[in-house]
Every structure is written in structure tokens, then in C-alpha cells.
Amino acid sequence: MLPFTRPTISQEEIDAVVEVLRSGWLATGPKVQRFEKELADYIGGGVEVRAFNSGTSALEAALLASDIGPGDEVIVPALSFVASANVVLRVGAKPVFVDVDLSSRNLDVEKVKGAMSEKTRGIIPVHFSGLPVDMEPIYKLSQENRITVIEDACHAIGSSYNGAMIGAAGNPACFSFHPNKNMTTIEGGALSCKDVAFMKRIERIRFHGIERNEQGEIFVSEWGGKMNLSDVSAAMGIVQLGKLDDFNRQRERLAHRYFEQLPDHPALVKPANGKGHSWHMFCVCIDGEAIGKSRQEIIDFFREHDIAVGMHYPAMHLFPLYRRLGYQAGDFPNAEQIGAQTLTLPLFPGMTDRDVDMVCETINSLLSSGK
Ligand SMILES: Cc1ncc(COP(=O)(O)O)c(C=O)c1O
Known about the structure:
- By secondary structure, this protein is an alpha/beta fold.
- Helix content is about 40%, strand content about 15%.
- Strand 11 (about 210) and strand 12 (about 220) form a beta hairpin.
- Helix 3 (about 55-65) runs parallel beside helix 4 (about 85-90) and helix 8 (about 230-260) packs across helix 12.
């Protein structure tokens, strides 16, 4: 079975992990420090980086350190992994969904404007599948209205916008290193930002609110969680980061092969391409109705051909948790259409051209088997 994603782990990662395991220091320590420094250098723009145990906790910490909480609203695209909205609820604020563009799957500034109220304190743009959101108009809007922009860059390590890496702009940007991402620390995440005082607060929120005075005594003046990364994970991250550009080049090459080999068919919508894309995922839409097949029949068709496909993602506002906020079917037609039709095709650096061709041949026969 060809999986839709698979981490690329070699002896180097294994050796790096074993070295930490033998060192006697497993939790947050020198490897995390080095990982943070190397990530900051990779992202550029003079940002600092703090490592987290997940992208979710990086997002939650960014909201808390921005003083976003009860009574506040945060604008979130209706199409993302549910963590993008859950973190807003977690800090006591209200996620306000906006629809996404059918082709890019990213939010656009006009829809953001339409969702703003006097309670809007934050916007969480998600660089869907690694395709950068057009950030300039969003930064402009945020400056005019004093709204914090927290980028959900969990798909976007290695993506770039206007020639700079995602994360380099200086506002908080949060990354995930879950095993299905372009690089992995097993579980893990990171937050980049240029504001030094903000990052000091992030450090406290990340670890029990703990601060130290000059004598090295600890004190706690605000709440903090337990969101730190282990040295074992960081050791893996250091090796993976060194290979990230190669991984992403490989992803890009495979994505281009998909574009070359996929048929043009009215029932098939290919993903948007664009500058700075890191090709975290290659998501298509297949209109089952147009080919007389249910979603399950389509997924089964791939399965019968030894191909696993992903679904990124169901529209979030239709989950029971968010319907309770008053959202309903019909609110965000693009997110709903994508949610109903999306399929993530296999894409990972270890894939071969032959694998891509096999997926494309399967899609060809799926489309021609329809009515
Ligand atoms: C868009 C998006 N945001 C946030 C997250 C959360 O990241 P993590 O799984 O590292 O907590 C993910 C994870 O898949 C994601 O895809």
C-alpha cells in the first residue's frame, strides 16, 4: 500500500537520537537550544525561535502571550486542521470562521474584512498545504485595526513569501513537526517571532510560568503550561532541518510530475500552484456526483489499487463543537465543497516517479469508469 505520507528517517537521525539517549540528558537542554538557533538562522529575518512539544501548543502560547482571551474574537479559515480553531476556544476566545478560496484553499483579505467586529483581536491565516497566504493585505489590515496576526505555519516550514521564509516577517508564526510534516521531531513544534519581550513571555507560558531572578531563584507570576520539547526530539529536528531543502525540492519535483501526468477532466480539480510553495500536501478535489460515485466508493477505488489517500480537511464549522456556536451548513460553501470532495494524494520525498505515475493512472481509470 502506498501511504499518502511517510517520514524520511535515515541512520543519521537514529544515531542522533541514540547519542542523546546515552548522554543522560533527555528533556529540554542543549539540543533544544541548538535546534532553536538553527531554526532561527534557517528562517532568517532576525527572528528568535522557541521550540514546543507541538504546533498546537505553539499556537496556544502565541494567543496567550498576545493577551487574547474571553470576550475576544479571532478570525480563522473554515478549512484547516481543527487545532487552528480549537486553540482559540482553549484560551476562552471565540473563533470566527471565514470561507477560503476554492483554488488556493487559503483565506483572503476581503472575507476577513467581512468577518471583523469591534471584538476582533486576532487573525490566524493558515498557509494551506504549504502554499503561502497573500500576507501583505492582511498585515495592512492588522496594522490599521491593531489586530494580532498569528500565522498557522504548521504546513509551511520551508515555504516563502515575497522572497522571505514564512516566519521571517516578525509576527508570531507557528510550525508543526508532526511526522506527516515536511520535517519531523516525532511530535513537536516551534514559534518564531521578532519581539524579544514577547518571546520572554512565550518562554514562561511554555514552562509553568517559571522565571528566574539574578540569584537563580525561581518565581511564578503568571500561568504557564508544559509545552517544552525534549532533547531527543530536538536532536532529530537538527538532522531533519539540515535535509529540509532537499526534502522540499523532492516534493516540488513530485508535485510537478503530478501536474504533468494528471488528466484534465471536469470532475478533477488540481491544487493551486504558486511561488514559495513547500508542497506539504498535494490535494485534489474529485466531484463524485459527476462520475456517479460516492466518496467512499472513490476512497475504496484507491484502496483496491493499493493507494492510501488522506482527507484534508472536513470544514470545521460543521463539527458539532462549532455548530454549537451557531454555525451551520451553507455558511462557507467553498470550505464545505472542499471538505466533501478533497483527497490528499501520496506525496513524500521517498516516493518514486513510478509511484506518481501509478496514482495518476488510477485517477485516469477512476474518472473514465464514471458516467
Ligand atoms: C494547519 C494545522 N495547524 C495546527 C496543527 C497542529 O500541529 P501539531 O499536530 O503539531 O499539534 C496542524 C497539524 O497537523 C495543522 O495541520
